[in-house]
Amino acid sequence: MLKDITLGQFFPGNTIVHRLDARTKLILVVVYIAALFQATGWISYLAVTAATFSCMYLSRIHPKNMFRGLKPMIFIIVLTAVLNIFYTTGTPVLPGWPITWEGIERAVQMILRIILLITGTFLLTYTTSPIALTDGLEKLFNPLKKIKLPVHEMTIMMSMALRFIPTLIEETDKIMSAQKARGADFETGNLIQRAKAMLPILVPLFVSAFRRADELAVAMESRCYHGGEGRTRMKMLKMQFRDWAALVIGVGFLAMMIVMKKFGL
Amino acid sequence: MSIIKFEKVSYSYPGDELPSLCGIDLSIEKGQFVAVLGHNGSGKSTLAKHMNAILVPDEGRVLINGVDTADENRVLDIRRNVGMVFQNPDNQIVANVVEDDVAFAPENLGVAPEEIRRRVDAALKQVGMYELREHAPHLLSGGQKQRVAIAGVIAMEPEIIVLDEPTAMLDPMGREEVISTVTRLCREKGMTVVLITHHMDECVNADRLVVMSNGHIVADGAPAQVFSQVELMESEGLDVPDTTRLLYELKKEGVELSLEALSPADCAEEIMKMLRG
């Protein structure tokens, strides 16, 4: 069950998508989301889908991995679809039925929108190493240091969190097995009973997470960590021609989507 | 001048009644491989944490290359010079990629990017992890993770490496990997190594063995010499190598021989000598 979590996973590679600067990719994801929300008609949805798939093709990320990330979202997707089918007014499919043609159309578009939203953002984390990602965030938000926002601290916390996801998942698995071995039951009962059964997992997990945090802090200090001041990077972020080109294409795409919306496509 | 010098150092953790270190005097020379042996709660980890100013003595002082660890302005100098490797490999690796983790310390020190690259490659080659530089650390074995942690401190180019029970969570193979790596660093690169451990077999190759108990140093000398004090070691709840044990039992039976033979070959020779009379 826990193995399905793909959050923050990174698939190393050497494609054009991997080589783009993390900052470029972060900006492009924002542009992409903005463009996605401009889509109203089928033609514009087709355009976004085509754009998403071509990026996926360029990144050489296997679609299987892409859709594995969607699994935890199935419930939300289905729920949105059902709500849209039943709560959109229009011409009924059959007289007297609560389902309308408009509702079905909306539902399909909604599903498409959520799937595209998730795959687009996953493409970012799949192709960008967490270090590059947090470096990129730090660089992008650098101006906010002027208003005393702890940008470096926030990004280092984020990269530590990403680093410890697999470790904590492994630990949770271990604790679950230990509790199961002593007769704990996580699979039966109603929702509340199952939630209660989680307590003997969460308590040891929290205790150990705090102990880890403490040891990690000492280890970081031992390696001369003293905040963001005067820190350098082995892998410097550098905007290349391809980054500017990608940004121009991205912004052009957004402009196209806005125009398409104006024409109701 | 000694590279590490403890002068009458005492320390107790806040809230503890008994001090963890009581009046420790210890000098370690450059290039030495020193093992510190003791059972749990003997103060050996506390001793280690004093070497890079994570803990500062309540009384007395610790000098690293002549610099007092209590001097807050020199803390970075001291930590750069004393690399510290801890017990749990998972809790000291900070990055998702091996080479990024090794780069962490030099990045903190503000080293130029090309120089970091050079140091990271050199450090990874020294511990034999260069081929796995782009791997995710959580997919490595315990011994490999610990070697990455060692690379992470050598990238600072320290003169001293302190290892606080680096093998406690490893299987026998991982232990062997780690111990041979640090032994090589000491013998080939001339690094000063302080190895904190409770496995007596890891101390056999050290130049010097310090035994701690209840915050005191109870024995200090060449491993062969220290292990030959079998009664003392036993009263501290510590094991002695099988070779020493054999000679000790023979001696107890009234056979006249020296206990200072650690390797099986030396031990055999000692017994031969006795037999020839």
Largest interface in this structure: A-B, 31 and 39 residues
The termini of chain B sit apart by 45 Å
CATH class of chain B: Alpha Beta
Strand content of chain B: 15-25%
Instruction: Find the count of extended strands of chain A (DSSP E, 2+ residues).
Output: 0
Query: Can you tell me the CATH architecture of chain B?
Result: 3-Layer(aba) Sandwich
Written as H for each helix and E for each strand, in order along the chain, the element string of chain B is EEEHEEHEHHHEHEEEHHHH
Q: What class would the helix/strand composition of chain A place it in?
A: mainly alpha
Kindly describe this structure.
The complex is a heterodimer of chains A (265) and B (277). By secondary structure, chain A is mainly alpha-helical. Chain A folds into two domains: 1-128 and 240-265, no CATH class; 152-231, no CATH class. Chain A is built from eleven helices and no strands. In chain A, helix 2 (22-36) packs parallel to helix 11 (241-262) and helix 5 (74-86) packs antiparallel against helix 6 (101-127). The two termini of chain A are 42 Å apart. The model of chain A has no long low-confidence stretch (mean pLDDT 86). In chain B, helix 4 crosses helix 5 (142-154). A six-stranded mixed sheet of chain B has the order 6-7-8-3-9-10, with helices on both faces. Chain B contains ten helices and ten strands. The radius of gyration of chain B is 20 Å and the shape is globular. Chain B has helices at 44-50, 75-81, 98-108, 113-126, 142-154, 172-189, 223-227, 230-235, 242-252, 264-276; strands spanning 4-11, 21-28, 33-37, 59-64, 67-68, 82-85, 160-164, 192-197, 208-213, 216-221. In chain B, helix 6 (172-189) links the parallel strand 7 and strand 8. The longest helix of chain B has 18 residues, at 172-189. Chain B is of the alpha/beta class.
